[in-house]
Design a protein that fits this description.
- The chain is of the alpha/beta class.
- It folds into 6 domains: about 10-100, Arc Repressor Mutant, subunit A; about 100-165, Winged helix-like DNA-binding domain superfamily/Winged helix DNA-binding domain (Arc Repressor Mutant, subunit A), CATH 1.10.10; about 165-290; about 300-400, PTS-regulatory domain, PRD, CATH 1.10.1790; about 415-480, no CATH class; about 505-650, Mannitol-specific EII, Chain A (3-Layer(aba) Sandwich), CATH 3.40.930.10.
- The chain has a 5-stranded mixed beta sheet. It has a 4-stranded parallel beta sheet with strand order 10-9-11-12, with helices on one face.
- A hairpin with a 2-residue loop joins strand 3 and strand 4.
- It is globular, with a radius of gyration of 30 Å.
- The chain starts with 11 loop residues before the first strand and ends with a helix.
- Keywords: Activator, Repeat, Transcription, Transcription regulation.
- It holds the Pfam family HTH_11.
- This is PRD domain protein.
C-alpha cells in the first residue's frame, strides 16, 4: 500500500479485498463528515464557515473531491451542498480515508530515535508500508533531524540516527510537546511510550516540588518542564545515558539560579527513590539545560550588565525609529532586559513552550505584532539566536504595554469653551482624559466663541456654556461629565475617525495601488511562483534591488503574514524599496502560501523616507480583517474597481 500526496489518479488505489480507497486531505475528509452528520443540504456560506475557508476555496475543494473520486460525490443546488445518495457512491464515501503520511512520519521518527539501528524490512512490517514509502518519508524527514544537529544514515538494510544523546532528547521533547495535551498529562498518540511511569504521575511530583519550594511557574512553561524531564527519565530507563555534552567547557550558558538547582535536585531525588534510578551530574545538567530560562529568578548581575542593557536599548530605539514611534519604555525596561536574557537562554538551548498570544495578537494588533517581529529580527542578528513565533508573541505583549495606542490616524483637534473659574478648566481636562475611552488633542481652551480666531482649527468643539452661534460640530457638556455626555463625545470622535479613515484611504491607498501592479488569475498558485514573479517584475521596473525579496522571505520565516486562510500581506524587514506601492495578486484557485492557503496576496513596498509607509500595513489590514469587506474586495477585477470599492467601503 502506498500513500500519495498529489490530487491525481494515484489518489485512488486498490486496497486489500479489491476495494477502491480514496485518500483525502483533512479538510476534504472533514467536508464529507459534515455532510454525513447534517443529513440535509448545507448552504454555501454556512459550509464555508464550518470549514473556515472562503466560498471560492470551498468550491475548489468540492471540485477536487469529485475529481479524486472520479464521479460526483458532493452535489450542489440552490438548497446547498449535499451528498450523492447513490448506494455505490455512499459505499465509496465509506471507504474514504485521510492521507496519514504525517502519522506514519511520527511513528518513523520515534522508531529511529528509540533504537540504535532499525531494519527497513522490520519498519515496513511494523508500519504496513512499502520500502519506497519508508525511503520517501526518510527523505522528507531529514531537515527535521538536521535542525537538531542529527543525521540519518543508511547501511545496507539498516537505518540509524547519528548524533549526541542530548540532541536526541531535545528532538524527542519537541516531538512529545506537540503530542501532549495542554496540561502535559496525556498524549494524543503514543500513550504507551512513557513506562513504568505516566506523565500525570510525573506532573504531580513536579507540582509538589514547586509547592515545597514555594515557586510559582508561569503556565506556559510548566508543560515544557514536564515533557523535558519525562523524556530525560525515559531515555535513562531505556538505556541511553546522558552524554555529558551540557557540562562541556564550551557548552552554552545556563541559568545559575540556586532555586532552579534545588528544584532539579529535589525532583531527581524523588524520581530516583520512586523509579530506582541513579541520576548522575550529567543527567542533572541535561535537565537543567532543558528547562533553563523557564524558571523565575531575580538576577541583579543581568540588570547591572551595562553592555547588555546598552545592546537592548540600542535595538529598541532602532526598532521604534524604523516604525516612526516615540515611546517611553523606561518603566518596563528592566523587566524587558530580564525577559530578553531568559529568552536567549531558551533559544540557545532550543527550549520551547506554546501560547496563543502570537495568533491572537497577529490578528487583533497586527501593527504591534509587526513591530515585535522586527525587534525579534534585530535580536537574532545581535545575539545569533533563532527566535520562534511563540517568543515573538511575548515580545509583542511587552510592546503593547507601552504602545497602547498606535497612531494609524491623527487625533481629533478639539477646542474647549470653558470659563476660567478656579480649577474648572483643570477639572474638565482631567475628566476628558480619565473618563473617555478615546484620546483627544485639546488644542485650545477659551472662555467664549469670540476668542476663537480664523487661524484656529478644530475638528469639533466642546462647550460648558450656552452659545448663540450654532456650530454644527459643537457638543454641549456640563462641568462634570455625565455618562450621556461621554457617549456623545465618543460618538463624535468615532465619526471623525471614520471620516479621516475615508480621507486617508483616498490620499494614501489610491496612490499605493498601480494599474501595472494589479493581477488576477495569472496561474500562479504557490508562494515561490508569486514571489519570483514579483521579483522579476519589480526589478525590471527598477522599484527594488536583487536583495529585496530575500528580506521578504526572511520576514515570512520569522512569522507568516498569512491570515485566516484568506489573504497574505508580505513585506520586507527593511524599508528599502524605491517607491511605496502595493502589488495586488488574486487567484480563484487557492494559493499555497507556506503553511496556509490564501486567495489574495498584497505585497507591500515601503520607501524609507515615506512617512505613511509605517501606517500602510494597518490601513490595509483594517479592510481585509472585515470578512464581508474582504469578500467584496476580491470581486474587483481592475485597479479602478478596487479604488471604487475602497472609497465606498471605508466607512
Amino acid at each position: 500500500m502506498c500513500f500519495c500526496k498529489d490530487f491525481d489518479n494515484n489518489d485512488v488505489e486498490e486496497a486489500e479485498g479489491g476495494k477502491i480507497m480514496i485518500e483525502l486531505s483533512q479538510r476534504q475528509y472533514l467536508a464529507l463528515r459534515l455532510l454525513r452528520e447534517y443529513q440535509k443540504p448545507i448552504k454555501g456560506q454556512q459550509f464555508s464557515q464550518l470549514l473556515n475557508v472562503s466560498p471560492r476555496t470551498l468550491r475548489y475543494e468540492v471540485s477536487a473531491i469529485n475529481r479524486i473520486a472520479g464521479q460526483p460525490i458532493i452535489l450542489s443546488n440552490k438548497e446547498g451542498y449535499t451528498l450523492n445518495e447513490d448506494p455505490a457512491v455512499l459505499q465509496q464515501i465509506q471507504d474514504c480515508r485521510v492521507d496519514d503520511d504525517r502519522q506514519l512520519e511520527k511513528q518513523l521518527i520515534l522508531a529511529l530515535l528509540e533504537c540504535k539501528e532499525a531494519s527497513i524490512y522490520d519498519l515496513t512490517q511494523k508500519l504496513y508500508v512499502s520500502e519506497s514509502t519508508i525511503y520517501s518519508l526518510v527523505k522528507r524527514m531529514m531537515p527535521k533531524f538536521h535542525s537538531f544537529s542529527l543525521s540519518l544514515q543508511r547501511r545496507g538494510e539498516w537505518l540509524s540516527c547519528q548524533g549526541k544523546e542530548t540532541d536526541k532528547r531535545r528532538m524527542l521533547s519537541h516531538f512529545f510537546f506537540a503530542e501532549a495535551n495542554a496540561l502535559a498529562t496525556t498524549l494524543v498518540n503514543f500513550d504507551g511510550y512513557f513506562s513504568p511511569f505516566g506523565l500525570a504521575e510525573l506532573a504531580q511530583i513536579i507540582h509538589e516540588t514547586l509547592d515545597e519550594l514555594d515557586v510559582q511557574i508561569d503556565d506556559i512553561y510548566i508543560k515544557n518542564i514536564i515533557i523535558c524531564i519525562a523524556v530525560c527519565v525515559q531515555r535513562m530507563i531505556n538505556g541511553y545515558p546522558s552524554d555529558g555534552s551540557e557540562t562541556e567547557a564550551d557548552a552554552l550558558p545556563i541559568s545559575t539560579s540556586p532555586l532552579l538547582t534545588r528544584f532539579v535536585d529535589t525532583t531527581c531525588g524523588r524520581l530516583q527513590e520512586q523509579l530506582e534510578l541513579t541520576f548522575t551530574e550529567a543527567d542533572k545538567a541535561t535537565i537543567l539545560a532543558f528547562i533553563t530560562g523557564s524558571f523565575p529568578e531575580e538576577n541583579e548581575q543581568i540588570l547591572q550588565n551595562e553592555r547588555f542593557r546598552g545592546q537592548i536599548r540600542k535595538l529598541l530605539d532602532k526598532t521604534f525609529r524604523h516604525f516612526q514611534l516615540e515611546l517611553d519604555y523606561s518603566a518596563v525596561f528592566d523587566n524587558f532586559v530580564l525577559h530578553v536574557h531568559f529568552l536567549l537562554l531558551r533559544c540557545r538551548h532550543q527550549n520551547f513552550f506554546h501560547n496563543d498570544f502570537a495568533t491572537s495578537l497577529r490578528t487583533s494588533h497586527p501593527f504591534i505584532y509587526d513591530v515585535a517581529v522586527y525587534l525579534a529580527y534585530q535580536l537574532e542578528k545581535e545575539f545569533q539566536a533563532a527566535i520562534p513565533g511563540d517568543e515573538i508573541g511575548l515580545i509583542a505583549i511587552y510592546l503593547g504595554s507601552i504602545a497602547t495606542y498606535v497612531p494609524t490616524y491623527d487625533l481629533p483637534r478639539v477646542i474647549c469653551i470653558c470659563p476660567q473659574y478656579h480649577e474648572l478648566r483643570k477639572l474638565m481636562v482631567q475628566q476628558l482624559t480619565e473618563k473617555l475611552s478615546c484620546t483627544l488633542d485639546i488644542v485650545k481652551i477659551v472662555s467664549s466663541l469670540s476668542e476663537i480666531t480664523d487661524q484656529d482649527h478644530a475638528d469639533f468643539y466642546l462647550s460648558t456654556v450656552k452659545t448663540e452661534n450654532s456650530l454644527t460640530d459643537l457638543i454641549p457638556i456640563s462641568p462634570i461629565l455625565s455618562p450621556l455626555e461621554i457617549h456623545r463625545i465618543e460618538k463624535k470622535n468615532l465619526e471623525f475617525m471614520k471620516a479621516q479613515k475615508r480621507r486617508k484611504l483616498r490620499q494614501n491607498l489610491l496612490r499605493f495601488f498601480d494599474d501595472q501592479l494589479f493581477f488576477c488569475n495569472h496561474g500562479l498558485t504557490t508562494e515561490v511562483e508569486i514571489l519570483t514573479f514579483f521579483d522579476q517584475l519589480l526589478q525590471q521596473r527598477g522599484v527594488i534591488d536583487n536583495q529585496f525579496m530575500d528580506s521578504v522571505r526572511q520576514r515570512e520565516s520569522l512569522s507568516s503574514t498569512a491570515f485566516f486562510n484568506r489573504f497574505a500581506v508580505p513585506h520586507s524587514l527593511e524599508k528599502d524599496a524605491l517607491l511605496t506601492k502595493v502589488v495586488y495578486y488574486y487567484s480563484d484557485e487557492p494559493i499555497r502560501w507556506y503553511d496556509s492557503r490564501v486567495n489574495l496576496v498584497l505585497l507591500i513596498l515601503s520607501r524609507s523616507d515615506d512617512e505613511q509607509a509605517s501606517k500602510i500595513y494597518n490601513l490595509i489590514f483594517d479592510i481585509l480583517i472585515d470578512e464581508s469587506c474582504y469578500k467584496k474586495m476580491i470581486l474587483c477585477r481592475s485597479r479602478q474597481e478596487l479604488m471604487d470599492f475602497l472609497e465606498a467601503n471605508s466607512n
